[in-house]
Amino acid sequence: MKFMIDYQFGYMYGRYFMWNFVGKQNDSQGHLDIENGNWLSGINFIDEMRLGSQQSLPDDVKNNKGRNTYFFLPLILGLLGLLYQIKWDKKNLYVLFLFFAFTGFAIIFYTNPKPFEPRERDYAVVGSFYIFAIWIGFGVLYLYDKLKNFANKKTVALAISIVSLITVPALMGFQNWDDHDRGNRYTTHLNAQAYLESLDPNAIMFTIGDNDTFPLWYMQEMEGIRTDVKLVNTSLFATDWYIDQMKRKTYNADPIPTSLEHDQYRYGTLDVAYYYPLPQFKDTVVTIDYFMKWIGSNNDVTYYNDSENGVKEKIYPTNHIRIPVNKANVLKNGIVAAKDADKIVDHIDITISDRAITKNTILMLDILANFDWKKPLYFTGGSNDDNEYIWLKDYMQLDGMAYKFVPILTPNKYRTSDGQVRQKSLFDMGRIDPEKMYANIQKWNWRNINDGKIYLDEQTKRNAISLRNNLMRLSEEFLKQKDTASAKEVLDLSLYKMPIEDFGHYSISLGYPEIYYKIGDTESARKTAEILIDIFQQKLRHYSTYKDLESVFDNVDTDLYMYRNILGQIEEFDLDRNYLEKLQDDFIENVKLFSDLLPDDTQETVPLPQQPLDSVLP
């Protein structure tokens, strides 16, 4: 009950309601923090009671087009309208109030949203906002009713109408236009096209959710781009009707290679297969062809039978599978470049789940068993789960925005200096063929992404993380090959198209100075370093205005860490000690803003990193 009242009705619905009639802090999703997704009135002393200081705001906060303030005016007018209806129209009030409750609180109660959904769910309760908008209209009548006796009634009506129009709908329209204007925006178009143009001809690509599927469908259906590609949505791949669609030709793309028939995966059949080790398969690796024959078999030995309870479930006796590599087909179909032929392995061993696999995973394995290296297989990289890559993360190649399955081992795990084995993040997964990836990125249509006029919403900025990271990885790959010209070209492209200050997520940009230094472009290294330092200084100055510094301690710590990261790179690579010392002095001054949070012996001297830091942080 407390969760429902405090979080679902309070934090979720309460924020959504106030967004619409008081104002909105920004376009980032809220996670019970004070910096994102809260309601904001624009009246500082009120906002500061809830959200901390609103002084010395950083540029990225002030200039966020999703920051809209209405100064409570729509809310006040709506409450006045509610009072007006309570007094003069109780009969219809009950109808509207029930409508308001059932399209707001009742929907929240019925859908029972969990904390931190993938996105804000304000659209689910928009009906209640329509009802409150009716009360805003009644608010105008309330004002007229109160003021009509103070002057000519027509004059009062005209004056109230004009004032109400300016202070509520005109104000809201003015505040909201820039973050609701979709004109001349092609960022989703770019993202979808970048995925498709990262693929080899006649490829099959596994997508996962909405954002990495629907835009790609649009590009194929409406713009006819890369209709040779077979897109397989793994979420839908658990349904028999969708599997049937995938087994048919779509556009210019051939059906998926599969051995399973409809009756073997129809609704209610083969929904899941459980790992049930059998003694005769102990320490055995079976070929993927054998594994799929076992899965498709009706033989009783391939099931767990509990006749007493009427249970019959498909099992698999081993989770160790071998995928043979047809080297001739790999090279013939361009899955691996001829220059890398010596890196091709003879076979690939994978270890699948030791619990169970669901229908969509079974069908993905079926494609793997039947494609015979005649078509390239790709993954969008929209998840970090091993099963979304059918346990092939050690054999990925980044070709732009998509990861291609190649028979070249690129371990996705590494051993730390203290002997611990860790898995790489998605930011570092897979190998890169720099020439191939470079050719692919030349096809990307950036259009006006950097014109400074269009609205870069939070989803666009998140999509840009992959674009930026992948271009930085390509630049580093060229650098490893001593091709500094190409490395600089790619790095320059990423900065020109996605300026650091416009796209947020600054941790992903920390590697720019180091890469530029390694290229030999000190001027660009300093420029990117100074941009990042200015951003961190703005944030630190803002946090220093908080009365309760403990409330922003984690944010201060993070920004100081990233600030030190930049200084560490300059200390490592820049030969001008005077330049470094000036920046260090500035850093010390910024640290002193938080002297109350620091031990006394650290206020005079703050140690800087003594070794190079990671170029890119997730």
Topology:
Layout (H helix, E strand, L loop, with lengths): L1 H20 L1 E2 L19 H8 L7 H4 L5 E2 L3 H16 L1 H13 L2 H7 L14 H22 L5 H28 L6 H10 L7 E4 L6 H10 L6 E4 L6 H7 L15 H4 L6 E4 L10 E2 H9 L6 E4 L4 E6 L3 E5 L2 H6 L14 E5 L4 E3 H12 L6 E3 L16 E3 L4 E3 L7 E3 L5 E3 L7 E2 L1 H8 L16 H23 L3 H14 L2 H4 L8 H8 L2 H22 L9 H21 L3 H16 L26
Parallel strand pairs: 3-4, 3-12, 5-8, 6-9, 13-17
Antiparallel strand pairs: 1-2, 5-11, 7-8, 9-10, 12-14, 13-14, 15-16
Helix pairs in contact: 4-7, 5-7, 7-8, 13-15, 17-18, 17-20, 18-20, 20-21, 20-22, 21-22, 22-23
Describe the structure.
The protein is α/β, with parallel strands linked by helices and 618 residues long. The protein has helices at 2-21, 44-51, 59-62, 73-88, 90-102, 105-111, 126-147, 153-180, 187-196, 214-223, 240-246, 262-265, 288-296, 327-332, 359-370, 434-441, 458-480, 484-497, 500-503, 512-519, 522-543, 553-573, 577-592; strands at 23-24, 68-69, 204-207, 230-233, 272-275, 286-287, 303-306, 311-316, 320-324, 347-351, 356-358, 377-379, 396-398, 403-405, 413-415, 421-423, 431-432. The chain is built from 23 helices and 17 strands. The strands form five sheets. Strands 4-3-12-14-13-17 form a six-stranded mixed sheet. Residues 602-606 and 609-618 have low confidence and may be disordered.
Total beta strand runs:
17
Report the sheet-strand fraction. Answer: 5-15%
Name the poorly predicted regions: 602-606, 609-618
If strands are numbered along the chain, what order do they take across the biggest sheet?
4-3-12-14-13-17
What kind of assembly state do the chains in view correspond to?
A: single chain
* Proportion in helices: 40-55%
Query: What value does the Rg take, in angstroms?
Result: 29 Å
C-alpha geometry: globular
Q: What is the count of helical runs?
A: 23
Q: Outline the biggest β-sheet.
A: 6 strands, mixed
What separation lies between the terminal Cα atoms? 37 Å
Could you say which structural class the secondary elements and strand pairing correspond to? alpha/beta
Mean pLDDT score: 94
